[in-house]
Amino acid sequence: MTPQDFWAQWALARQRTDDAERRQEQNTLRQIGRTLRQATATQWLDGLMRQPWTDPSWSSWFWFNHFNVLSSKAQIDGVIGHYVFDTVAAHAQGRFVDLLRAVTLHPAMLMYLDNVRNNANRGNENLARELLELHTLGVGGGYTQADVQATARVLSGWGVDMSDSGASTVLRKRQHDMASKTVLGRSYQSNDGQELHSLIDALAAHPATARHLCTKLALWWLGDAAPAAAVQTLVHSFERSGGDLAELWRTAAALREQHPQARPFKEPLRYVCSGWQALAPGSAPLRMDAAVRWLNQLGQPLLDRATPDGYPVSGSAWANAGQLQQRMDWAQDVTRWMPNLSGQRPWRPEPPSLPTHTRAATRQVVQASASPAQAWALWLCSPDFMFA
Question: Of 185, 205, 225, at which residue does a domain stop?
Fold first, then answer.
């Protein structure tokens, strides 16, 4: 199935006048959408599992999670692959302002946050609020409700044109609020949509945006106790480079080397991928559907976070008894099924090589295992391995 199949089916479903036929066509459309969603998740996860989480390719995950969309809403399934690979991943090592512009004006975001229903006569503030609160300035970033309302007016008329050939962003001028708007003390005049581009430029360059983004990135790289000085170093990198995300990623990697004691608790995606990398470096499971299922079981399915805030980056959100039990079960399952997953029959691993920071108690338990496979299972579910 391809996006072209999705949109052809979408057009066909709209053409049906008989209720029973329309329901049948819509069911087929939903099936195609699920197939596309699963294919996108599988392809993306395949790439992530082949690289350590410090690799720049992982920035696609960090920024997608920051600009989260729910793929199953509306017709987002039909554009989710383009959003993940051609928009977020394509800009994840570029300039933040370009990434912000690309995601804000993408059909997936416009549909997800209901800007398709935002017009001059009847506004919708969903995208405007998240643009300020989540995507740029952050809570406490200095904006007011009046700024949200004015931003919604700037965004009015920006929608999605859908046909049997696909979906594209469009500015419907008759639905756009043509009056002057003021956001954060700056006036914006309507000029064929240029006011939105000017607003995005201003938000990307705002000091509160740098602070919000860098605090979140520090949590992801250094954990809940990320030093304030590290956050400030990231802010300086962001501002000095003009929002160069590749430079920001390199700065975060360097900070990790400087603060080896600051180790984040791994969210399920990082846990599963790092576990597989430890078992079979540079590869991905032969059964990627199994890897997708692992994340579902651990509570972090790709492309399926309903709320726009994305999955938590704070380790404390994941460190609970239920999650730890699920990880113990996963460690046992993945080692049990390694012959099928890796294609190595029989699977005869060497015992895990434990890092120097491994606690003595963990080292003793792992090294006392009855077999290398058991040693791997114990290591993967140990408290030491839960931290990046």
Answer: 205
